[in-house]
Amino acid sequence: MAIFRNIVVAVPNDAYVEKDASVFVKDKNEYDPLKQYNRVKHSIIGRSIGNGMMYPNSNFRLRYPAIFEEASGEKLPRQTKKIGFYTTVLSLVEKTGLYDAIIQSYGVENANMIIDFAMYSIINHSCVADQYPSAMEDQLLFSNGLWNSSRLSGFFNNDISEERTSVFRKIWAGKCSERGITEAWIAIDGTNNDCVAQKADIAEPGKAKSQKNISIAGYMYAVDSRNGDPITFSIYRGGRIDCKAVIEMIGWLTAYDVKVKGVIVDRGFATKEFFELLDQSDIGYVAMLKGDTKAHTDMLDRYAGRIRTHYEYMLGRYREDVPVGKATEFRMDSNVLYGTAEAEKIQLFSTQDYKAYVSLIYDSRNGGERQEAWFKKVSNAALEIQRQLSKGKQASVPQEYKGCISIEDFVGKKVAFVNAEKVQEVGERKGFFTLASSKALTAKEANDIYVLRNSSEEQFSMVKSQLGYDTTGTHYTEGIKAKLTLAFISAIIRNELVKACCESGLSTNRMTNELNQICMHMNGKDEYFVSHTENHRQILLMKACGVQPKDLDRIAEAENKRLSSAEPDPFHRYPANTEGEASRKGSGRPKGSKNRIPKKAVETIPEEKRKRGRPPGAKNKKTIEMETQRAEMSTARKPGRPKGSPNKPKANIEIPKKPRGRPRKNEN
User: Quick one: CA dihedral 583, 588, 592, 596, positive or negative?
Assistant: First the structure.
């Protein structure tokens, strides 16, 4: 294991020094019943140099990263980084074109920070900049480094300018048009936030939701009611009337080829001024009326007792006087609604002469739950009033229970009385709501349009939670607009997650947390790898978002290259596989593509059959072998012995043996 001899650190208090100068710590100290003694596991973290100092090694760097960073002066990469949510978001922002739209509007460096902050907002349901560094320190990021809160404050106030945001709104509207959002019912939601900032020109006195006498800032979203896709947003002065902001938004959408068939709004927009502006612009609407509206109370008096849980008024019931295809098939666990609609326009407001078509609808499940809750509230309120009276204290009936609870004298004592008939009457009106529409619609048609607003409501409720619900903490106009812009971008990404979770039958909030638990780890070579411990739900959701498990390995490889590069590429692109084919391509032919050869052409191509026997003019195997041998024999032989051949065997000639000893003299 490598020892860093250029770095000197103090020996940790929980470490031990051996005689050979090695420094170690005890990892395990467990009793082994078989050996009947304690088993101790050591990990060497460096070598001692005396006087309580040591050279650290790689184990020391892993165990004491803060000490090592301080001694070496180098910022170490984290040993574990969360990769699952980053990979999913990268896939989604590429698929929707959101990443390119942000880059074109704000530049690549700012775009990376915007996506990082959007991930933080979705995971933590917050937009508080002070919490960002600690929440994202172990997250794989689009930015090259982790931004601190002071740098983020400057980013909000200086880098996300109103001009750049206008460019983004324009580009994103074009992206929505390319994705087929050209004619749709638009769900619009809006609110205002209390704003105590002294340097924000956008904050001014208005009708605050908090009922406080305080300056406010208003903002509004437009969402495609079919699938919840956020289309555009508007940020305006708190004193401005909301309906004028809606008309301006609709005109802006029309200029970018998004035709608004009508708008769906909640009780906050149900005013005479708003409806008249829509009528003048020839824009249809479906709106829910407030509970104290004249039309709502009149419809209750006229139809409440008649339509409550009556089969004749059940929405979507089978009727013999319409085609069978018009009937609704009900599941046993499905919620049932009852309703009726007025054939003629009626007056909506008691003090204003404006008429519209109105439908009264009763939700039996919601009505039953709210009725029981009302009964409990009345009983608890009466009990609390009686407790105060019993202690001799002054007590009064809250405005909510006027007419249902009264304080009267009984046998010389003050007693809280409950008017049971009034309580029952109020309870039986729970679960009813009234819809106003610009055109004559049946109760079912009006409700079917209004429920499209659910996608907007879910997105907008998340936006409000990210923004702190009812208070804006930013102190400059630029900062307020920047955070609202980032909240809109977060809503786009989260809506894609919502759709993928609905497709997979999963919970969005739960799966967001589970995706963020998929990590990559650093090995001994200081390189990240993925151990692939994903569960079935994580794999299912990732595939719905266009992510395959092997893509995580490619993301880890890209991060390793980025860390080893002196100038890392700021652009993040979804990696392709080694074959050069997009790694997110599913099996089979892409939807809508055609076969390379038309079916009829394939059928008309005759299948060529091979005839039996040798083709005419072809030679058989023996003839080919003989011709090959002749060719080899006719080849001119080169001088010398062929390479690799043995010597020729010697002739078998007997050589007489020489007699032993000295030759004899010749006697002659």
Answer: positive
Tokens matching residue 354: 């404006």
- The model carries a pTM of 0.63
SS3 184: strand
Q: What amino acid occupies position 515?
A: L
| DSSP code of residue 57 | B
Q: Please check whether residue 424 is in contact with residue 438, taking contact to mean a CB–CB distance below 8 angstroms.
A: no
Beta bridge partners of 81: 520
373 φ, ψ (degrees, to nearest 5): -65, -40
Q: Enumerate residues 6+ apart whose C-beta is below 8 A from 546.
A: 91, 92, 95, 584
pLDDT in tens, 602-647: 344 344 455 566 666 666 777 777 777 766 665 555 566 666 666 6
Alpha-carbon gap, residue 114 to 94, rounded angstroms:
15
Within 10 angstroms of residue 176's Cβ, the number of other Cβ atoms is: 25
Give the up-direction half-sphere exposure of residue 344: CA atoms within 13 A in the CB hemisphere: 2
Query: Using an 8 Å Cβ cutoff, are 126 and 487 in contact?
Result: no
In this structure, the strands spanning 471-472 and 183-195 are parallel
Reading the block at residue 658, the tokens are 């020489």
Beta strands in 490-615 (DSSP E): 519-522, 528-529
Instruction: Decide: 377 and 438 in contact? Cβ < 8 Å.
Output: no
